[in-house]
Amino acid sequence: MEIFSILGQQSYIGEWWTLPMRTFELVRGEKPVEREVEPFQSEGKLEELLHSVPSLLLEEDVLIIGRQVGVDTGTLDLLGIDKYGNVVVFELKKGDSGSGSASEGSILSQPQEYAQALHWLTYEDLDDIFTEYSTEVGAKDWPGSDGLDGDSLLDAFESHFRTTLPQETFNQNQRMVIVAEEITDRTAANARYLRDEGLHLQCVEVQRFRLSTDADSSPVLVASTVVDYDEKRVQPREEDAITYPEINEAIVSRAFPAFKDVTHATSPEELFPGGFDHREPRMHSQHPEHPDAVRYALRVKPLEEGHVRLSIDVTSRGLELEEVDKTALTGRIRDATDCFEQRGFHVDQSRNTYRIVTAHWDVDSVADVRDEAFLDEVAGRYADLVTIGHETFVDT
Prior knowledge:
- InterPro entries: tRNA_endonuc-like_dom_sf.
- This is DUF91 domain-containing protein.
- It is built from eleven helices and 16 strands.
- The chain is α+β, with helices and mostly antiparallel strands.
- The chain has two domains: 39-207 and 216-234, 3-Layer(aba) Sandwich (Trna Endonuclease, Chain: A, domain 1); 244-393, 2-Layer Sandwich (Yope Regulator, Chain: A).
- Strands 1, 4, 5, 6, 7, 8, 9, 10 and 11 form a nine-stranded mixed sheet that branches. Strands 12-13-14-16-15 form a five-stranded antiparallel sheet. Strands 2-3 form a two-stranded antiparallel sheet.
- Helix 6 (244-263) packs parallel to helix 11.
- The radius of gyration is 25 Å and the shape is elongated.
């Protein structure tokens, strides 16, 4: 008996993504008979299968260290560790990724909430999760317990990956994987956007096929990665590496006291509801008279682009706004050109969306960005940008 698959592919926004797979079996090597998709009986059955065969989850080796793990934001389905010591959260869904209780919003928001809760866990915390999981594997006779040799997570990691890591290098990154029988087009598009914004997010389809002419035939399992990213982004940070949360938060926390009152915020987190782990976080003022579409952006790219840049943007992206009069908003910004330029900012007279007002620093290395005096300088200018922006739009 021989099995082969025909996988349709289609170009979409510069990427390849999978269409429904057609699988055939060559009966006695002669007659091709199509195998039909046979849905899993329940989400629990899907979880049981993936727990016992974790190689279906990703095209890389993963050590499962938790099942139905309770965290502050809920209960995650499976928790793993990759070869770099990063945590990997698996959110499983029977059927397509946006159906039933898992809406298109929740199927992406849930693993993000789980990853956020796991962000603060130390090696000792992960070791506690692993110890509890190891006990449950023995007590409940769960299959798929390979790699659980040893009394600690470090022992199991060394046995599973044939290498070891310092305890302090665990959990440098939090990875999220959506696993469903079908990843919808909308889920895939949303996941790609979040991935490009800096989240370590992947989507995987796992389907079961059975020979259409024989209900008693053994099923065939097929797994395919629909949304992926380069492995380099989750490799351990080198000494010259930089993280968005680290530098973005350092700058904003220094600037916050200067614009706390004008933005009507009690903490920096209120101004950045999406957090600081983005390539270009944009501040959302809480002042009721400040236009929602006017944002204050921070972009720190010393290695990729050799610069640090502040800007005022006018954008409705990600906002539920019926209409944004960009011409009127950018007109008010340009009316304040003298105020901005007196404080050393450049006002572009042709742009209507991004980088209308900017401040720019050329930097050669991460060391330049980590310099305390430099951070103070950028934070001071960022405070000026926000303050002048509020003087422009808020009637004081």
